Predict the structure.
Amino acid sequence: MSLGGIGGVLDAGSRARYMARQMAAIRAPHIRLRPGEMASPSASANEWEPHECFQLCVECGYLAEGREQPCPGCGSKGWVDLRRISEANQIREMERGNRQVIPRSLSRIGYLVGVALGLGALALTYSIALPLLENNTSGALVMAMAVGIVTAILGSWLLPRLLVFLLYKRRPTFPLRWRLPVPLPSSGDEPAALHEGQAVATNAGELLRAPITGEPCLAYEVSVLFDTPGDLRPPMWILEEERSVAFALDGQEVPPDRVTLELPVEPVGDESPEGSRAVALFLRKRGLFASEGDYTLFEALVRPGLTYRLELFDCKAARISQAG
């Protein structure tokens, strides 16, 4: 990846995280799946992955270890067990189809603009062809109609696809899968307290392992950028996950899974066969499939013993960033 490409990806990551921090609660549907849309039970419905997977909220894409009632993100009580192969594959097919779909409103715009372009091309071609064909009206009309029809078809087909790409590229989208501590501080919230100092685990020796790099840490963020050839969408953020253990900073104790990270993310990954298998397993546990396209993974870590800035909010949210 070129330097400019890396900069664009990191900038997109920053925008995605900024948007996430503004959401006090996530209520907009992301995967648009309802329990009634699941296929009827079949032989494959009894097949389960040999490893544990997350539960997925069908309304907002929140990932949970168990079926928390209700969903911490949106209050829904609809859950899908991603360990169940049939249901995970149904979600996979639905999301794949959504990437190929042009919204009806854009299709109508494309048809109207295509017809307008076709009529314009017909009139222009006729006015140019008529003198060239020495006032042969029928010949000029046939040529103009052919150009107009081709222009209308191309415009109706190409314009909606171009609009989809441009609109989705400009519009911020929340990841399809997420696991963030809620409630999140919103953009207008001022911290009730500020602390700066070294971060240390509350329980000595209790640390997390970063999912991709395996580094010991007090907290981590994993963000995943996804793209696949041939779809109608630009690269999209499909996962943002943050976890933390209980830790203390400047005498202030923070409970587990209560802090959001405002730290720079770095591209991570191991292209060895073992590393690729580990990434594929990481994705599958979250209802994502390595064979669907290209995934770029990023991590940010809170390392023990380093100095950070901690912001505390009245809504019981906490945010950690680099000191200074």
